[in-house]
């Protein structure tokens, strides 16, 4: 059984957070404001930089999902998600 690469897991969680944000038609700024963090910090999380469990829990709460849902593999393997979702 192949062991998971921690860097790939963190990157996938970041992409998943971006997917969940885009599904809600929120910008990185919207989520950053809800979390009281900088947009730069949100960008780093979505880019696959490590975060604490506390931060993951706060993000899950802001997105109204469980922490476990942040670990669902993202639908896309693309590394970059757009910062601003298309407005409908």
Task: Give a written overview of the molecule.
The chain is an all-alpha fold. It is 51% helix and 0% strand. The chain contains four helices and no strands. The protein has helices at 6-23, 28-35, 39-46, 53-63. α2 (28-35) packs across α3. The radius of gyration is 12 Å and the shape is globular.
Number of helical segments with 4 or more residues: 4
Query: Which consecutive residue ranges, at least 5 long each, have pLDDT under 50?
Result: none
How many distinct beta strands?
Answer: 0
- Helix/sheet category: mainly alpha
Average residue-wise pLDDT: 90
Shape: globular
Distance between the termini: 44 Å
* Share of helix, binned: 40-55%
Characterize the largest beta sheet: strand count, sense, and whether it forms a barrel.
none
Share in β-strands? under 5%
Q: What is the C-alpha radius of gyration, as a whole number of Å?
A: 12 Å
Secondary-structure element pattern, one letter each:
HHHH
Main features:
88 residues
What's the helix and strand layout?
Layout lengths: L5 H18 L4 H8 L3 H8 L6 H11 L25
Quick recap of the structure?
The protein is mainly α. The chain is built from four helices and no strands.
């Amino acid at each position: 059984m192949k062991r998971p690469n921690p860097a790939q897991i963190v990157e996938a969680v970041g992409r998943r957070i971006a997917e969940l944000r885009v599904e809600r038609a929120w910008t990185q700024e919207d989520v950053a404001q809800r979390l009281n963090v900088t947009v730069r910090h949100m960008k780093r999380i979505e880019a696959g930089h490590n975060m604490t469990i506390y931060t993951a829990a706060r993000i899950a709460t802001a997105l109204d999902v469980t922490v476990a849902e942040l670990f669902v593999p993202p639908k896309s393997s693309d590394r970059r998600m757009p910062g601003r979702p298309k407005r409908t």
